[in-house]
């Protein structure tokens, strides 16, 4: 029987320090993965350091190493997409370059996939050790909210570290949306998934590419991509404001009839104006978010552009 091929996809942005360590670590544990042939697919996401040279070097050294280099930084989601699209493996696994996704789990993941019982083996962190507490707090709140307002099943602490069969890869590649929110996409495609848990590991070298602000924008993107609840909320806001206004009208008419009409209430009027126009602007902003995403989708721009590929 022919051996199956396992593709390891690694999105890399400024990982000149981590990438060689990553390759070495996986290389050293290869005998535990002897039931499959390996293929590496490094995606250089427009790095500004020597990541591309590291990729070239590794390719020269080991012909199973392939790489794609983007013309600029397109983001990790685009990197994952490119990797999936270019991968040839019967099985595919996505891993970070910084060894925060422990390669030691690969044999276990592989055994679940090979058993044929699962199409996808996903991982989640059970803690967020070594992360600023405020970031963890926001992250937890985000997942709670997201699961309330979206039908895609998005798991707290879920990593992009997943192994899947060709079936799942093809399903994900067929989703050509421009605004990619991988965590949502993985949940959306479904298929039988096995969850493995692990404790957070800190990155081996280099530093995180995610600032708090970037994560915040990412969270908003996720909500807009996988839920239309904010649009419903905007309408509900409108209905509530109408009800409040109606009650006010009744109160004012009754008061005028009973007590006469002393001209007063200017400050309260200003407050109401401010509140209502604030809510209106907010709702318009929500609409704008969806409109802008729809606008970008209709342009059908490519998800990434390749500068060099081997
Ligand atoms: N990454 C990428 N493009 C980006 C940002 C990050 O390909 O624009 C890669 C990065 O090289 C790493 C992975 O995505 O392999 C995770 O990034 P990072 O470790 O900075 O995120 P964290 O683990 O802190 O969430
Ligand atoms: Mg990391």
UniProtKB/TrEMBL annotation:
Q: Which SUPFAM superfamilies match?
A: Nucleotide-diphospho-sugar transferases
Q: Which CDD domains match?
A: DPM1_like_bac
Listed A to Z, the keywords are: Cell membrane, Glycosyltransferase, Membrane, Plasmid, Transferase, Transmembrane, Transmembrane helix
Descriptive protein name: Glycosyl transferase family 2
Concerning Pfam families, the annotation shows: Glycos_transf_2 (PF00535)
Query: Which GO cellular component term is one of those annotated?
Result: plasma membrane
Q: Which residues form the Glycosyltransferase 2-like domain?
A: 7-171
Q: Which spans are transmembrane here?
A: 231-254, 266-291
Q: Work out whether the entry's keyword set contains Membrane.
A: yes
Q: Which domain of life is it from?
A: Bacteria
The answer on whether this UniProt entry bears the keyword Nucleus reads no
Q: Which PANTHER family match?
A: GLYCOSYLTRANSFERASE CSBB-RELATED, UNDECAPRENYL-PHOSPHATE 4-DEOXY-4-FORMAMIDO-L-ARABINOSE TRANSFERASE-RELATED
């Amino acid at each position: 029987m022919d051996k199956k091929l396992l593709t390891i996809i690694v999105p890399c942005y400024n990982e000149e320090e981590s990438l060689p360590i990553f390759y070495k670590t996986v290389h050293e544990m290869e005998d535990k993965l002897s039931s499959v042939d390996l293929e590496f697919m490094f995606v250089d996401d427009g790095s500004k350091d020597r990541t591309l040279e590291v990729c070239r070097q590794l390719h020269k050294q080991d012909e199973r190493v392939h790489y794609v280099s983007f013309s600029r930084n397109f983001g990790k989601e685009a990197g994952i997409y490119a990797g999936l699209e270019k991968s040839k493996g019967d099985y595919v696994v996505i891993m970070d370059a910084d060894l925060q996704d422990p390669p030691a789990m690969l044999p276990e993941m592989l055994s679940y996939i090979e058993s044929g019982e699962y199409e996808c083996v996903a991982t989640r962190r059970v803690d967020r050790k070594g992360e600023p507490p405020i970031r963890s707090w926001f992250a937890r709140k985000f997942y709670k909210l997201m699961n309330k307002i979206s039908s895609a099943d998005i798991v707290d602490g879920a990593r992009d570290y997943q192994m899947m069969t060709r079936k799942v890869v093809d399903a994900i590649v067929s989703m050509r949306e421009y605004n990619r929110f991988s965590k949502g996409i993985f949940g959306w495609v479904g298929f039988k998934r096995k969850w493995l848990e692990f404790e957070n590991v800190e990155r081996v070298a280099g530093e995180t590419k995610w600032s708090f602000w970037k994560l915040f924008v990412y969270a908003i993107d996720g909500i807009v991509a996988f839920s239309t609840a904010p649009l419903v909320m905007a309408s509900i806001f409108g209905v509530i404001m109408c009800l409040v206004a109606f009650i006010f009208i009744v109160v004012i008419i009754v008061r005028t009839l009973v007590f006469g009409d002393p001209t007063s209430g200017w400050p309260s009027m200003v407050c109401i104006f401010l509140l209502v126009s604030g809510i209106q602007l907010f709702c318009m902003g929500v609409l704008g978010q969806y409109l802008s995403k729809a606008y970008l989708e209709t342009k059908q721009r490519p998800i990434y552009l390749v500068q060099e590929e081997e």
